[in-house]
Amino acid sequence: MDALINSVVMKYTSWTSLLLFVLFINTESAASQSIIKTLPGYDATLPFTLETGYIGVGEADKKQIFYYFFESERSPENDPLLLWLTGGPGCSGLCGLAFEVGPFAFDFSTFNGSGLPSLILRAHSWTKVANVIFGDLPVGTGFSYATASQDYFLSDTISVKDTEIFLRKWLLKHPRFIKNEVYIAGDSYAAKLIPVTVLEITKGNEANVKPQISLQGYLIGNPITDKVQDINEQVPFFHHMALISDEYYESAKSSCKGEYYKRDPSNAQCLDALELINKGTIAEWKKCRMLRDYEYDVASAVPYHEALSKTRYKALVYSGDHDAIVPYLATLKWVKNLNLTVDDDWRPWMVNDQVAGYTQRFKKDAFDLTFATIKGAGHTAPEYKPVECLAMVDRWLSSSPL
After folding, report:
1. Among all residues, which ones are annotated catalytic?
2. What range does the record give for the signal peptide (predicted)?
3. 298 alpha carbon, distance to own chain's centre
4. Fewest CB within 10 angstroms: 33, 275, 280, 390, which?
5. Model-level pTM?
């Protein structure tokens, strides 16, 4: 299966090139929007409303941000609006769309490695319960581009500001959605910037920037939050999941003193212990390209979560419990360090009479945070457990207990 997925990913560039052609023959100019009724790999008219287009941001709109917008398949006027940000940075919104929570996916069962993959409809798309914008953010990702070379020099903080401007300008072009509840959503590296983006939007709202965004909260999955803390929890996670022996874990714990990220080259015992733990692993494969001129200037998202804990927003933080990139242990640790009050203690949550994971709910005044694990899911959770993840987000958006 891994070889087949890799083959699909290799064909992904060809498919997206063809998709871009299809999109542009339906679009009068880069600044306009188009309703897309057909896509390569799908023989019928699309059974949902898909709009694509560009929104200009930055000086003189020199940055053009591409997006895919899907109206809710239930009630576009009443359902919330989600801005989905894919990780990386450098992963197109098409990744989140086709591999995670969008209404179509690549058909692995019929793809033999030649030609272009066909598309299939996803029964458990998040568009079943929400309007969703997939943005190619930051600029240089996917089909987004800049007309000036200096605009490709990016950072976390620049990306956050561009995201806020993009959303406000998108709403100006789609005024019928201004009154819808808005949530900022995403996973992996995007989840690190989401709390920063939420605060930026909040500041704009407080300064009466138009249009006002009806922001209600945010949801983040398998969230990269603080590189040191995330990686330091990997070794305990490996032991917790019975991937390494008690002896290996105790040796690393004793010699490294809990510091697995900042490896001291003079500490030979620690290096030897960690070498025994990475031994025999398989090199990773990538479906996203990393941006070359990008400054990672948000060291940790924890202070931003702390600031948001003083607001009226609600948050959903979820983790695949088999994710070794960002172990749920790391995520749960910073959640608990926010010093919130436990409102609903650790318990299983169910889908189709089966345990889908475990959840715990926290509150602080008007702030409400739900933490959830998704049983058997990796990085990122909706790729592995679409049924459970749709049930989770549907319940959370409707303010029902998981």
Report:
1. 188, 323, 379
2. 1-32
3. 17
4. 280
5. 0.88
